[in-house]
Specification:
Elements: H1 27-30, E1 38-40, E2 45-51, E3 56-58, E4 61-75, E5 80-92, E6 95-97, E7 100-108, E8 113-115, E9 118-120, E10 122-125, E11 130-132, E12 135-137, H2 142-150, H3 163-171
Parallel strand pairs: 1-3, 2-4, 3-4, 4-5, 5-6, 5-7, 6-8, 7-9, 7-10, 8-11, 9-12
């Protein structure tokens, strides 16, 4: 059994002061950059140029241009876009009339339609999607290929088809 003696010079231990509500960080203040995006709602109509440094979701109407080179632009099922789009990734589930320029990937889902040309590295078109325009699939530059090899990307597991075969497959 242990015996404890109280020292007369000891100061009593007090709990730390409770912070005020202004000092307590909110979840948004802890990590804001990971959850930010811009959304254009169903009732919103934008005519002009959109330049974004966050992902964009379009459920309303946009006429003009959309530029988000480092992020994804998603056009929802009820979205109507009459604009050129420049983004890292583009996903279309609504109607788009304009040219697309993507540095990574373009997806056109089964309810989506694109009337315009598109240029990208990778493309995914679901059955039932509508596409009218020219498709330009880029090959990565030598510098980008070297970066992929350094990152450990296994090119042997990637299946690629010549664009002419893809067009014949889409047409049939």
């Amino acid at each position: 059994m242990a015996m404890f003696a109280q020292n007369s010079n000891a100061t009593p231990v007090q709990p730390p002061p409770t912070p005020s509500l202004a000092e307590v960080p909110t979840p948004a203040a802890v990590n804001t950059s990971a959850n930010q995006y811009s959304m254009i709602g169903k009732s919103i109509v934008i005519k002009g140029e959109i330049v974004a440094s966050d992902p964009i979701y379009v459920y309303g109407t946009v006429e003009g241009s959309i530029n988000a080179p480092a992020h994804r632009v998603t056009v929802g099922k009820e979205g109507i876009v009459k604009a050129d789009i420049n983004a890292r990734e583009i996903v279309i589930m609504g109607d788009v009339c304009g040219n697309l320029e993507s540095t990574e990937r373009v997806e056109i889902r089964n309810d989506g339609s694109l009337m315009g040309n598109l240029a990208t590295r990778r493309i995914y078109i679901e059955e039932g999607a509508v596409l009218s325009g020219v498709i330009d699939v880029h090959k990565p530059s030598k510098k980008e290929k070297a970066e992929q090899e350094d990152a450990g990307v296994d090119r042997k597991s990637v299946v690629s088809f010549p664009v002419t075969e893809m067009v014949e497959e889409i047409a049939s």
